[in-house]
Amino acid sequence: MTLYCKSLSILLAAASIATQPSRVAAVETPEFYVADFSVTQPVSGLNIKFPGKLYIGADFSIDSAPVIRVHAIVDLSDLQAQVPALVAKAPLPKENCASYSLKNPVVSLSNSSLNYNSGRAIFHTDGSAVVWTCLQNPVPCTKVEWQMKDLGIMKTKVPVVQSYACNPPIKTIDGTQPFSIDAPFTIKVDNTKALQLVPGNAAINLSGQYVGITKNILETFSINLDAVLTDAIRKALDAKKATAALPPEFIAAGLTFESAQFVSIVDHAMGVDVRAKLNVTTATVKEMGKLLYAEAKKRL
């Protein structure tokens, strides 16, 4: 409680001298909760909720300019829950007779998940590629058509036997290629103004005789997966929507991102921890003072 009151008195003084940090005593306010927020975004045709919490703190020092810190934690548990449905939309081969050839793979996925591990998001999936041979049926169907023919002395219709393919193709399973994928992702700050998902090197584990066929398919799938998760994380970190709960003076001052990382939150869910700072103006310092005053009253 004493620290909140001390912080409040310094902030109120700083409101009139925000551009003169050398006259402000050194203090760091404890971080405190400001508001919940929730962002719902469409990702590959699915609506995904990204709830979160906002926290505020401040640093005032005799050696540097004052800083107002914004801390957000975004909950990715709904994204985690919908990962199987998201990857099911990936353009994987599903037709066992896409061509008359010896190599028609049909790929299926199972146990798809997105989890936190040592500061990274790890996408995992198991699966199999069933390789089919599909050949045109050599036994044709026939039908008789009456066609006009020139017989030299006259033209007349005569019966003509026509052959055409009508029997189903011959399909056989040549073998099954099991596989698993583990693809890591991290987040980085891009020029202090945006957050960027960074895909790591995916480990594609293959066993079986159709490695060449399956590897090319899964490399294409990994590119698609990167795009889907990048879109999801970008929408989860929509700064405009996430900071709507902040005072308008804070939003007008402009956010500068400092760090972002995946974290583990309640009940083994995964989240993103984002830290930013605000440009300090007389307006933002005054608003910070109001928030600290409200927080101090709660603790009386």
Explain what you see.
By secondary structure, this protein is of the alpha+beta class. The chain has helices at 2-14, 77-87, 211-236, 239-242, 248-253, 282-298; strands spanning 27-28, 32-43, 46-60, 67-75, 101-117, 120-135, 141-150, 155-164, 170-190, 194-199, 203-206, 255-264, 270-278. The strands form three sheets. Strands 1, 2, 3, 4, 12 and 13 form a six-stranded antiparallel sheet that branches. Strands 5, 6, 9, 10 and 11 form a five-stranded antiparallel sheet that branches. The radius of gyration is 32 Å and the shape is elongated. The termini are close together.
Name the structural class: alpha+beta
Order of helices and strands: HEEEEHEEEEEEEHHHEEH
Give the amount of beta strand, in percent.
over 45%
Biggest sheet details = 6 strands, antiparallel
Q: Could you tell me the mean pLDDT? A: 80
Evaluate the radius of gyration.
Answer: 32 Å
| Terminal CA distance | 7 Å
How many E-type strands?
13
Spans of at least 5 consecutive residues whose pLDDT stays below 50 are 1-26
Number of helices: 6
User: Which percent bin holds the helix content?
Assistant: 25-40%
What is the global morphology?
Answer: elongated
